[in-house]
Specification:
The protein has 503 residues and is of the alpha/beta class. The protein has 3 domains: 64 residues, Thrombin, subunit H, CATH 2.40.10; 276 residues, Rossmann fold; 67 residues, Substrate Binding Domain Of Dnak, Chain:A, Domain 2, CATH 1.20.1270.330. It contains 16 helices and 19 strands. The strands form 4 sheets. Strands 8, 12, 13, 14, 15, 16, 17, 18 and 19 form a 9-stranded mixed β-sheet that branches. Helix 7 links the parallel strand 13 and strand 14. Helix 10 runs parallel beside helix 11. The relative contact order is 0.10. The protein binds adenosine-5'-triphosphate (ATP) and magnesium ion (MG). Magnesium ion binds next to helix 6. One of its GO terms (biological process) is bacterial-type flagellum assembly. This is Flagellum-specific ATP synthase. It catalyses: ATP + H2O + cellular proteinSide 1 = ADP + phosphate + cellular proteinSide 2. Keywords: ATP synthesis, ATP-binding, Bacterial flagellum biogenesis, Bacterial flagellum protein export, Cytoplasm, Hydrogen ion transport, Hydrolase, Ion transport, Nucleotide-binding, Protein transport, Translocase, Transport.
């Protein structure tokens, strides 16, 4: 712009040029002098621009900020800022700063939730919006338009370099391997996949657990729930699947559970070999509800990244209930009315948003097979979170306290569990045998008391007779040690051996 101006109207520039630059001394007398004068012109303009550029660089940028007006419990109120829900900011303190997220607003007031502790906050502290960190623009790479809420959401690190790492809900390493090296990042909230573009679930996945492989076959890209009361074996079963499932990458989200279990999961369950192909995101119970929500979203974001690279990902989330509880804590704190059993409506909207992100990508691409644990408080299968999760997942594996108490592990309640994609994954003959297995097993269970007191007379019910005969084999088939794996093919073979006359 400067060049054009100079060439087109040198008089105007001369007149607006600061006095003392001596332009009038270089009045052109002939052609050669005119060239010299123009060079002089250019040099002096360039000098001036350089000086100004340095001055601009030295100046402090204009910082938009608001003020903290109220803190109650975990919710903070701020005024003086106009920020979108979901955007992040930091609160300036004399010696440090606290990161927070906008979780709602009322009139001019913004409701903020801290990422960690609110210790040290003072009235009137400055609140400064922070821009999401984005992947640097590379030459030749098309930048998608930033119109949707996902584009404005917080961006956290993703990439191959996360394999073998343990991170917190904000993408900070918790292990001893130093800071993350690369700067690729992705939004915590992704764009929904067009349901018509999703590949169908059609390949069975080997999860290494006999009872699941044969009776509750899981497909690549399926999302399953693991339901039970506390201490029945959800985490142990998830661990078995983490160890034995054939997947390219495993992403583990340990959300709201005991901190002790994080280390146990990494050292005892995954082991060195397992960890090398895994990324662990841990937001245990003692972290803020925001961190727990973010941890679950981040684990899903990482899984999505690997799926988009064409990988078959296993996503393990322990637990979905704690995720819902974190959302309940936040929603209640900002004044949302509780609806079902103390859970506000937003909880039931958040669950499908998270779960729908897992599953298959486009045809020929990668997949995310996901297992979410769901705590059914007091073994109540009608718990609102369990009910909602059952409706949005593609199947549920129910663990029974009765079985666990009798030492039957994994304590899968075959009658109550279902894999909704199974009929597309196995042969019709196998599917029929599974129905028969369930029928006999259930029939035996219903008559168990009669049989055990010797009140049943052999021959009065032919189905029960065969169930009694088959039951020890069925039970033996369903039990499996914690450190024992059973491949898909041999699970199927052993299953059909139970029905020798029908194969
Ligand atoms: N397959 C198994 N074989 C032997 N013992 C098991 C098995 N699964 C679970 N257990 C026993 O049950 C205990 C509780 O299991 P786990 O921690 O997996 O329960 P949970 O359902 O995840 O509990 P919470 O809801 O409290 O997280 C284990 O510490 C272990 O002793
Ligand atoms: Mg557990």
């Amino acid at each position: 712009m400067v060049d054009t101006g100079m060439n087109s109207s040198p008089d105007m520039i001369t007149s607006s040029f600061p006095s003392g630059f001596g332009l009038q001394e270089a009045a052109p007398a002939n052609g050669r002098e005119a060239v010299t004068s123009r060079n002089l012109h250019q040099e002096r303009w360039q000098d001036l621009l350089h000086v100004n550029r340095d001055l601009v660089a030295q100046s402090a940028p204009l910082l938009v900020s608001g003020r903290l007006t109220k803190v109650t419990g975990l919710v903070m109120e701020a005024v003086g800022l106009r920020m979108a829900v979901g955007s992040t900011c930091w609160i300036e303190l004399p010696n440090n700063r606290i990161e927070a997220e906008v979780v709602g607003f009322a009139g001019d007031k913004l409701f903020l939730m801290p990422e960690n502790d609110v210790q040290g906050l003072v009235p009137g502290a400055r609140v400064i919006p922070s821009e999401p960190v984005r992947t640097p623009i590379a030459i030749g790479q098309r930048q998608p338009p930033r119109r949707r809420s996902a584009d404005l959401a917080r961006h956290l690190p993703v990439g191959e370099h996360l394999l073998g790492r343990v991170l917190d809900g904000a993408g900070r390493p918790l292990d001893q391997f130093g800071p993350l090296s690369e700067s690729k990042s992705a939004p915590l909230q992704s764009r929904p996949i067009n349901p018509l573009e999703r590949a169908a679930i059609k390949d069975a996945l080997d999860v290494g657990v006999r009872a699941i492989n044969s009776l509750l076959t899981v497909g690549r890209g399926q999302r399953m729930g693991l339901f039970s009361g506390s201490g029945v074996g959800k985490s142990v079963l998830l661990g078995m699947m983490a160890r034995y499932t054939s997947a390219d990458v495993i992403v583990v989200g340990l959300i709201g559970e005991r901190g002790r279990e994080v280390k146990e999961f990494i050292t005892d369950i995954l082991g060195k070999e397992g960890l090398a192909r895994s990324v662990v995101v841990a937001a245990p119970a003692d972290t803020s509800p925001l961190m727990r929500l973010q941890g679950a979203a981040y684990a899903t974001t990482i899984a999505e990244y690997f799926r988009d690279q064409g990988k078959n990902v296993l996503l393990i989330m322990d637990s979905l209930t704690r995720y819902a509880m974190a959302q309940r804590e936040i929603a209640l704190a900002i004044g949302e009315p509780p609806a079902t059993k103390g859970y506000p409506p937003s909880v039931f909207a958040k669950l499908p948003q998270l779960v729908e992100r897992a599953g298959n990508g486009a045809e020929g691409g990668g997949s995310i097979t996901a297992f979410y644990t769901v705590l059914t408080e007091g073994d109540d299968q009608q718990d609102p979170i369990a009910d909602s999760a059952r409706a949005i997942l593609d199947g549920h594996i129910v663990l029974s306290r009765r079985l666990a108490e009798s030492g039957h592990y994994p304590a899968i309640d075959i009658e109550a569990s279902i894999s909704r994609a199974m009929n597309h994954l196995v042969s019709p003959q196998h599917f029929q045998q599974v129905q028969r297995f369930k029928h006999m097993y259930a029939h035996y269970q219903r008559n168990h008391d009669l049989i055990s007191v010797g009140a049943y007379v052999k021959g009065s019910d032919p189905l029960l007779d065969s169930a009694i005969q088959l039951y020890p084999h069925m039970e033996h088939f369903l039990k499996q040690g914690m450190y024992e794996s059973e491949r898909y093919v041999s699970s199927m073979e052993k299953f059909s051996e139970l029905f020798p006359n029908e194969s």
